[in-house]
Amino acid sequence: MTVKSVPLPDIGNFKDLPVIEVLVAVGDRVEAEQSLITLESDKATMEIPAPFAGVVKKVLVKTDDTVNVGDIIVEIDAQDAASPAPEPAKAEPAASSVPAPEPTAPTPVEAAPAVAVAPTPAAAPANVVNSPINAPTFGATFHASPSVRAFARTLGVDLAKVTGTGVKGRIQKDDITAFVKNALTQSSGPVATAGGSIPPLPSIDFSQFGKIETVPLSRIQKRSGKHLSTCWLNIPHVTQFDETDITDLEAFRQSLKARAEKAGVKLTPLVFILKAVAHTLADFPKFNASLDASGENLILKKYIHIGVAVDTPNGLVVPVIRNVDQKGLFELSAELAAVSVRARDGKLSPDDMSGGCFSISSLGGIGGAQFTPIVNGPEVAILGVSRSKMSPVWNGETFEPRLMLPLALSYDHRVIDGAQGARFITGLSAVLSDLRELIL
Ligand code: CAO
Predict the structure, then answer these.
(1) Domains of the chain (ranges plus CATH)?
(2) Which atom of ligand 1 approaches the CA of 373 most closely?
């Protein structure tokens, strides 16, 4: 008999973490990496895995105890590991049948809620639409603790269909809850009741074709993905393209550079676009609106708050800049810079994210000729901005080099018709080409 103590591994800068679940009992046979206990911090819950296989001889913690790094959690007889393992359940391979994760790595299972792209009810992504939640998928492997497996069994969820958000794709209780929610939303949601149903994408074991790696999506990516799917499926989109001459705007921007630097801000074309959009929204109130829940009334907003898509290492977020019509270029620059930093540091507050009337997605700093942005519902329109480029423009007598900015306006065709879309983008273009329009 080789009984070894299992101490709480180094799980970072935590003290006195409460034990919220003890997952093993004396006499249980555990596999390496099988979860022993679940701990909860104010930011996350994490499962502590067994560093080796064996039979549990002693459990030294109980629910509601608090533990620190180095505290002994259990004692395991490692030699007993040689005894035959229980038969794994069908379509739920035991943790030992998948590649072993690194020993002693704690598994964060429930990160603190990240800020959603917009507070809109989420629908399932297209590939789970109408997919029966308990139809087994064969040939798939996954990590999940016994308690999570039991939870899945209670709800009749086939774990192979669930995307795990834990380390190395480990499936957490939350993943199952989200999966079931998605399935329910989808079966009663507007898409399903509209009469059409969307066939799910097939579930394929790609490893049959070559080497693969499974990388879990970040929490923000999953939330924004669901929100984008909802918008894409519910809103009939039209995208209107244009190119606007910003030669004079650019000259003005360059002339302001020194003053901007003195004021401690960086003036990019985006703040001019924000101002021009706010001005155009005031002229076209239907673009500064949302449909109500019945879909029969349009709610016109008397304020102009504009969301700006920000690319962060964890995914796309859309913080909102309030009262854009009442702010100057320098103030908007400072606010845009501050909100982008908060977004990239993952420090946006729910306030930062709510109340938007219209969104702008600017990829101009990166490149590309044009793209079709997805309306950020319940807003009814979004502007996509691509990289400006010097182009020959015919002035009636000769070609002139002009700096042209590509714009793409996507809108909800239930609210905005094509003529209005064309008028809006033409009006916006007129302001960007001649900023004096702003004071008219
Ligand atoms: N044409 C040419 N150059 C442009 C431009 C345009 N349309 N827009 C910005 N630029 C330039 C800027 O002037 C700046 O140049 P300098 O460094 O030489 O001054 C450079 O590109 C970088 O700009 P920036 O991206 O730092 O600043 P911004 O104000 O244009 O944008 C922000 C801020 C937060 C919107 C941006 O950083 C960002 O995250 N963009 C990505 C948004 C996104 O992912 N959208 C897709 C959503 S759908 O998946």
Answers:
(1) 3-131 (2.40.50.100), 142-216 (4.10.320.10), 220-439 (3.30.559.10)
(2) 48
CB of residue 337 inside a 6 A radius of ligand 1: no
What is the rounded (10 degree) CA torsion for 323, 324, 330, 336? 90
> How many residues are there in the chain?
440
CA of 386 to the centre of ligand 1 (A): 9
Ligand 1 binding pocket includes 58 (Cβ within 6 Å)? no
Mean pLDDT, consecutive 10-residue stretches, the chain (440 aa), reads: 89 82 91 86 73 94 91 89 44 31 34 34 32 36 72 82 73 83 63 62 94 94 94 97 98 97 96 98 98 94 98 93 98 97 92 96 95 97 98 97 98 98 98 94
Pairing of strands 358-362, 381-385: parallel
Sequence-ordered strand ranges (E) for 179-271:
237-245
- Largest Cα–Cα distance in the chain? 96
Ligand 1 contact, 308 CB (< 6 A): yes
Task: Quickly tell me which residue has 């959009």 as its tokens.
Answer: 277
- Token digits of residue 31: 């596999």
**191: buried, middle or exposed (CB in 10 Å: 19+, 13-18, 0-12)?**
buried
Alpha-carbon Rg for the chain in angstroms: 27
Nearest to 107 by CA among 163, 192, 25, 37: 37
391 Cα to the center of ligand 1, angstroms: 20
Partners of 59 in the β-ladder = 74
User: What is the distance between the alpha carbons of residues 142 and 99, in angstroms, rounded to a whole number?
Assistant: 10
**413 assigned to active site:** yes
Tell me the three state secondary structure of residue 318: coil
The packing angle between helices 418-433 and 269-283, to 10°, is 130
pTM value is 0.63
